[in-house]
Design brief:
The complex is a heterodimer of chains A (475) and B (601).
Chain A lengths: L5 E7 L4 H5 L6 E4 L4 E4 L10 E4 L2 E3 L5 H17 L4 E6 L6 H5 L11 H15 L3 E13 L2 E4 L8 E7 L3 E5 L4 E2 L3 H22 L7 E13 L5 E12 L29 H8 L13 H5 L9 E8 L6 H15 L13 H30 L2 H4 L13 H28 L3 H30 L1 H6 L12
Parallel strand pairs in A: 1-5, 1-14, 6-13, 6-14
Antiparallel strand pairs in A: 2-3, 3-4, 7-8, 7-11, 7-12, 8-9, 9-10, 12-13
Chain B lengths: L3 H19 L12 H17 L2 H8 L4 H23 L3 H15 L9 H17 L3 H21 L20 H25 L3 H17 L5 H17 L3 H20 L9 H33 L8 H14 L2 H10 L4 H11 L10 H21 L6 H21 L3 H21 L6 H28 L5 H24 L13 H20 L5 H24 L8 H25 L4
Helix pairs in contact in B: 1-2, 2-4, 3-4, 4-5, 4-6, 5-6, 6-7, 6-8, 7-8, 8-9, 9-10, 10-11, 10-12, 11-12, 11-15, 12-16, 12-17, 16-17, 17-18, 18-19, 19-20, 20-21, 21-22, 22-23
Classes of the chains: A alpha/beta (475), B mainly alpha (601).
Chain lengths: 475, 601
């Protein structure tokens, strides 16, 4: 089961004209109510289909409106209340990523998640009373570990990733545009898109290798009943992840995505190999994080709600890509941020417990034992019994002695109190002395009890022998 | 055999094909990514035609003399190039065919000076090809056989073999033996490097590490490395050795990383206008290596603690003297053998690396003095790393470094006998952690924030324990110590509570069911709070009763939670057992106290 913070859904688009013309077979199947997705290997039809389970599985009959209402709505609603949210879209080019995220105007049920999120946010801005909003957007892309501002004056300028204790991870120098309407939002996104496209032709880049992040930052000033103002900030990240497709002959630029199984020709991969050997939980691995991971570190686990939309084509000729998308999505379910609580086994603490529990048990045992003894022992030894105050039929001798001690204690206490009051001594000293006195009183009592127990004998030990196994706590 | 003029043009063709394949292809346009490769392929096919068919060569092969053998080798070179060409252009089957033809042609002479290098390279490429098909085992077979061939050749012959390209060079262009050897060794380095990757994919981690190490070693020996990259790789490898508790190897990697990295500083960058960005990168990498050193010192100390502690986590003096005696006997005889196997660099370089090693031990410290030395080295690297990874700008990295610093103090405290001084060390931890925690926005750093809360709570707890121990040695507990104990306990409770509060949902409700990753910490926090309430010292009986009641509630939480969620039991078995006992016993104690409070009324 996915952690609550990261939800993963898959969406499979219908067969397109090209796939139909090639008379492709559908290899993807969904059991939507169960959130299950099945994929059949067209090269091994005798094998059972591979099965994956997600927080949602949507097939061609579903529309974006449903997806939004069932899954995305709550996440965006959270943003308007001051919690961060992130939506990832993932899948090979042509798998319906843009269709899901940007969508189409007609029919309105297929309007994309992004315009819906815009509307959702501005609707809440308009509806809220006694609240002021500042909505700002930024748009950046990550290509080959370089960050560029898609809304900046110079889209070629590489930007630096920084962290601020109060503001979290941020991109230094990234431009923010204040927006007041859905239309404005859309226009800005459009501009960014265009800059991205221009970048490709200028720099000979390949779009499927770049990630882009469109961020809506909300600052919410609310005035409560008592007239006090509160400031909350939240952001919604809309992330378009690089395509998952294997590079085809026509699109290849030499670097391939399938590095996991590929041996690299240059020694440049040596660092990756060595890093992979280190279990990074408590050791340091230089440069282990990609910019994308760092930029979204508070989205991957932690108190951000994250939605991952994995898009698929149903056709058999996309089997490999679809399978790799599903695997990726499956891994995403278990995304956890690294920090964990390191707590040390506190052996000393446990030893103390052992000691204390032993003492407590002894006291308890002693009470029960005296009960037993009173019934078992002959009259002449019965006088040696200890009867704690709680027990009925106190033995006169012991009780008398106890009473004496008590009286002495009380008398001294009264005297001390009077003295101290008279002398206007500090309260601390008073307490201290009272405590000392009580301790000595307790000591007297327990010595008395101890003596009695020693005399009353072996029975205690054998009845209440208690073995307490002391475990060392495992980390 | 081709006429001399024809031969020259053949060589020229071959050269052009190489240049197309290796140089021009990088400039190919996006929509025709393999244009130059295809061009190179055409040239190679022509050369093959001119050399005559492979069958002919084979038929003649046996009886005929040198001429035929020469032609066979030349053909093999062309087949090899065609094989690589096809692999590069994603025609794996054709590529495989050519490469196999190449090895078939060379099979009988593979141990000769003329053939061995080419044969190894062909096998390397077959290895790459199969790994691209995802058949790592097959790749492994080819690469291991290349490795074996190298070893056999070096044992039986050892003369610098010809570079494959020399078969298409005029006599006067032929390479020097030095260059030949360099190229041959490079091919073999590649074999090892590919094997490292193969073993990693096959999850033969130890073997992979060994091959990574050898690859690094060979890069140094044959000067085929970028200092910064090499240093970083060596530093990373040191971390692998740490996970295996191989401190000698780990330190050697780190010392080598320092030495090689300093070369990068000395050699001015090839471009004169070294940008600020480059400088920044260089500083960052230096700090990264420093962080690997911190982990080294920390792991060494922690490993020492582990070997020295008794069953309640205190230093065991018997164990200490036992280990000290043992150490004298062993002296590093055993290590010397191991050392030889991993030593980086030759002569001068090796000397500088060994000199760098001198600065810190690789043997587990056994007393405070030794531990302190390791601690100080670690602390120096903490300062160095923090210089680059400052709080403002590198929040996460900075905190990780400070957490390591705190951990260094913590483990050093283990070796300190004096409780007061030990307490001061923990106070240092508080002083470095608390301000960071206060400045951190939990909205963005929730998980780190939690880590800090927990560590602060634990540290206050530790200090309280020490104060109690100090107090127990006194004849009577003075009010100052008592106050100190109470305030430390309360601070510990505060941070455990802050941690538990961070688990609440936006509506401030504690979750019904805890997530796996916080289950144990949350339970432990509850358990410790219960304990701390039991520790608070008060002379006010009512207050004491209240504290006991609170304590009981926290213990009860644990017991109830595990009843409701039985799957949680295994995460906190011991604490649960204790909690159950306390839940059984506390009410009796409270009864007694109640009775004591009002016995006389």
């Amino acid at each position: 089961m996915a952690s609550e913070a990261v939800k993963v859904i898959v969406r499979c688009r219908p067969m397109n004209e090209r796939e139909k013309a090639l008379s492709c077979q559908a290899v993807v199947n969904m059991d939507s109510p169960r959130g299950q997705c099945f994929i059949q290997n067209p090269g091994a039809t005798d094998e059972p289909p591979k099965q994956f389970t997600f927080d949602g599985a949507y097939y061609e009959s579903h529309n974006t409106e449903q997806i939004y209402n069932e899954i995305a709505y709550l996440l965006v609603e959270g943003v308007t209340e001051g919690y961060n949210g992130t939506i990832f879209a993932y899948g090979q080019t042509g798998s319906g990523k843009s269709f899901t995220m940007q969508g189409i105007v007609d029919p309105p049920t297929q309007k994309g998640i992004i315009p819906r999120a815009f509307e959702h946010i501005f609707e809440s801005v308009q509806c809220a009373e006694n609240t002021k909003f500042l909505v700002r957007v930024s748009y950046l892309e990550i290509y080959n570990e370089d960050i560029r501002d898609l809304l900046g004056a110079d889209t070629k300028q590489k930007l630096e990733l920084k962290e601020h204790p109060e503001k979290g991870v941020y991109v230094k120098g990234l431009s923010f545009n204040t927006v007041h309407s859905v239309a404005q939002c859309e226009r800005i996104m459009e501009t960014g898109w265009r800059n991205r496209a221009v970048g490709y032709t200028l720099m000979n880049k390949d779009s499927s290798r770049s990630h882009s992040i469109f961020t809506i930052n909300m600052e919410i000033y609310a005035v409560d009943e008592r007239g006090q103002d509160h400031l909350r900030a939240a952001k919604l990240n809309l992330v378009d992840l690089a395509g998952s497709e294997r590079q085809s002959k026509t699109g290849a630029t030499g670097e391939r995505l399938k590095e996991a199984t590929k041996i690299n020709l240059s020694l440049s991969a040596l660092g990756n190999v060595i890093s992979a050997l280190v279990d990074g939980r408590c050791k340091h691995i230089p440069y282990r994080d990609s910019k994308l991971t760092r930029l979204l570190q508070d989205s991957l686990g932690g108190n951000t709600k994250t939605l991952m939309v994995a898009c698929l084509s149903p056709a058999d000729n996309n089997y490999d890509e679809s399978l790799s998308t599903l695997r990726y999505a499956n891994r995403a379910k278990n995304i956890k941020n690294k920090p964990r609580i390191n707590e040390d086994p506190k052996d000393a603490l446990l030893r103390e417990y052992q000691e204390e529990i032993r003492k407590l048990k002894a006291i308890l045992a002693e009470q029960m034992n005296t009960n037993n003894l009173s019934g078992l022992l002959p009259a002449e030894t019965a006088q040696l019994e200890v009867k704690p105050a709680l027990l009925p039929e106190p033995q006169p001798d012991v009780e008398a002695e106890k009473q004496l001690i008590r009286e002495e204690y009380e008398a001294k206490l009264a005297q001390l109190k009077a003295d101290y009051e008279a002398e206007q001594e500090s309260r601390a000293r008073l307490e201290e002395d009272i405590n000392t006195m009580r301790t000595s009183y307790d000591l007297k009592l327990s010595t008395l009890e101890e003596n009695l127990r020693k005399e009353s004998g072996v029975a205690i030990g054998s009845c209440f022998a208690h073995t307490w196994y002391f475990h060392r706590m495992m980390p | 055999m081709a006429a001399p003029a024809g031969w020259a043009s053949l060589c020229e063709k071959f050269r052009s094909s190489l240049s197309l394949s290796n140089v021009e292809s990088k400039k190919d346009p996006e929509n025709e990514p393999y244009r130059s490769k295809y061009g190179a392929r055409e040239l190679l096919e022509e050369i093959r035609q001119l050399l005559g068919s492979e069958e002919a060569a084979e038929a003649e092969g046996a009886p005929a003399g040198e001429a035929a053998a020469l032609r066979a080798v030349r053909l093999a070179v062309v087949e090899y190039e065609l094989g690589v060409n096809h692999t590069d252009t994603e025609e794996l089957s054709a590529g495989e065919e050519h490469l196999l033809k190449c090895t078939r042609l060379l099979e009988r002479h593979r141990l000769s000076r003329d053939c061995v290098s080419l044969y190894i390279q062909a096998q390397n490429n077959l290895g790459i090809l199969w790994s691209e098909r995802g058949e790592i085992k097959t790749a492994q077979t080819y690469l291991e056989s290349a490795e074996a061939l190298y070893n056999q050749y070096m044992k039986e012959n050892g003369n610098p073999p010809l570079d494959p390209n020399e078969h298409f060079m005029a006599e006067e262009e032929k390479l020097t033996d030095q260059e030949r050897s360099k190229r041959f060794e490079k091919a073999y380095t590649h074999t090892l490097y590919y094997l490292a990757q193969v073993y990693q994919h096959l999850e033969m981690i130890e073997k992979a590490a060994q091959y990574c190490h050898t690859t690094l070693k060979r890069q140094l020996e044959y000067s085929g490395y970028y200092p910064v990259e090499w240093a970083l790789n060596a530093a990373t490898l040191s971390q692998y050795y740490l996970t295996k508790q191989c401190f000698m190897e780990s330190r050697h990697c780190l010392a080598a990383a320092n030495v090689i990295f300093s070369q990068a500083g000395q050699v001015p960058s090839s471009e004169d206008n070294e940008t600020e960005q480059d400088q920044q990168d260089l500083r960052q990498r230096k700090a990264e290596i420093a962080r690997c050193w911190i982990k080294y010192c920390l792991t060494l100390l922690q490993s020492a603690r582990k070997s020295l502690e008794d069953n309640i986590g205190e230093l065991d003096p018997d164990r200490q003297s036992e280990l000290k005696a043992q150490r004298k006997k062993e002296e590093d005889e055993k290590e010397k053998g191991r050392k030889k196997a991993v030593l980086f660099g030759t002569s001068d370089l090796c000397d500088s690396i060994l000199a760098t090693e001198e600065k810190v031990s690789c043997i587990c410290p056994l007393d405070f003095q030794e531990a302190r030395e390791v601690f100080l080295v670690g602390q120096n690297y903490v300062h160095e790393a923090k210089e680059f990874f400052q709080f403002d700008g590198y929040v996460t990295d900075h905190i990780e470094i400070v957490q390591d610093h705190s951990a260094l103090f913590k483990v050093l405290a283990f070796f300190e006998e004096d409780y007061e001084r030990r307490c001061k060390m923990h106070k240092r931890r508080i002083d470095m952690l608390e301000p960071m925690y206060v400045d951190l926005n939990p909205q963005y750093y929730l998980l780190i924030s939690r880590q800090l809360q927990f560590e602060l709570a634990d540290t206050y707890y530790e200090m309280m324990d020490l104060k109690v121990a100090i107090g127990n040695r006194l004849e009577e507990l003075d009010s100052h110590t008592r106050k100190k104990i109470n305030s430390l306990a309360q601070l510990a409770v505060k941070y455990y509570e802050l941690f538990l509060d961070s688990l609440r949902n936006p509506d401030k409700i504690f979750p019904e069911k805890l997530e796996d990753d916080v289950l144990r910490p949350a339970m432990v926090a509850k358990f410790h709070i219960a304990r701390l309430y039991g520790k608070l010292i008060t002379s006010d009986g009512k207050k004491q009763l209240e504290n006991m009641q609170t304590s009981l509630e926290y213990y009860t939480f644990l017991v109830d939670y595990c009843e409701k969620h039985p799957e949680a039991v295994q995460a906190i078995e011991t604490e649960l057992e204790l909690s159950k006992e306390m839940v059984g016993l506390l009410p009796t104690r409270m009864e007694r106290l109640k009775a004591k409070l009002s016995p006389f009324s």
